[in-house]
Amino acid sequence: MGRCFLSESTEKVMIKNILWVGVLLSLSTLVSAARLSGVTSEEQVTSEQGQVLVLNGMGVREKFWVDVYVGSLYLGEKTARVETILGAGKAWRIRMDFVHDEVEQNKLIEAWRDGFVNNQDDPTLKAINARMEQFYGFFDSTVLAKEYYVLEYVPAKGTRITRNNKLLGVIPGEEFQVALLEIWLGKVPADKGLKRGMLGVQ
């Protein structure tokens, strides 16, 4: 096959176009996803009811300087105001991508209990106790690295819990979903750095 020779000007134009394509592809990757601690989170997802939720922020849950999971918070629109998020009563999603080798079931349950107790008063804890116990039941085994949970509040239905894309159940009640959110965003968050990350203020 004969060799095709291009003029110098044509070669320059082709090289320039190729470089631009590379730049655009890189920008496209940055726009469509965010990455932290080896976990890539989509910039937007579709809720159970078909609403587009945007990535409000993401952070790492640490324990004794060890990364446990990456938490990504999705909302209808971005905001760093905790009171706005908690009082909205609108759809939200939290995805927990585990990066530690394994997290034992009892450690998970202990962390959830602490999160509720540290941010709720006794009357609230009593009111949502049955739903808290239902929630704990969805964490019935050790969680391994690369596994993930998705917690999504669906207005008028409740909080959907999935593990590795398998639906575990739905917990009704707006009071419960607020208490659950406060584990990360409350006055005594599970991890202050994770809270800042989820609020997009890091």
Q: What is the strand and helix layout of this fold?
A:
Elements: H1 8-32, E1 33-36, E2 39-42, E3 44-46, E4 52-63, E5 66-75, H2 82-88, E6 92-98, E7 102-103, H3 105-119, H4 122-127, H5 129-136, E8 143-144, E9 148-154, E10 158-163, E11 166-171, H6 174-185, H7 192-199
Antiparallel strand pairs: 1-2, 3-4, 4-5, 5-6, 6-9, 7-8, 9-10, 10-11
Helix pairs in contact: 3-6
Structure description:
The strands form three sheets. The chain has a seven-stranded antiparallel β-sheet. A two-stranded antiparallel sheet has the order 1-2. The chain is globular and about 40 Å long. Helix 3 (105-119) crosses helix 6. It has one domain (37-199): Chalcone isomerase (3-Layer(bba) Sandwich), CATH 3.50.70. It is an alpha+beta fold. The protein is built from seven helices and eleven strands.
Note the beta-strand portion. 25-35%
CATH architectural type: 3-Layer(bba) Sandwich
**Structural class designation:** alpha+beta
Mean pLDDT: 87
Shape: globular
* Count of distinct structural domains: 1
**Poorly predicted runs:** 1-7, 10-32
CATH hierarchy class name: Alpha Beta
As a percent range, the share of helical residues equals: 40-55%
The largest sheet, given as strand count, sense and whether it forms a barrel, is: 7 strands, antiparallel
CATH topology annotation:
Chalcone isomerase
Number-wise, the strands total 11
**Order of SSEs, N→C?**
HEEEEEHEEHHHEEEEHH
Query: Which sequence of strands runs across the widest sheet?
Result: 3-4-5-6-9-10-11
The number of helical segments is 7
Distance between the termini: 58 Å
Rg on CA atoms, Å:
21 Å
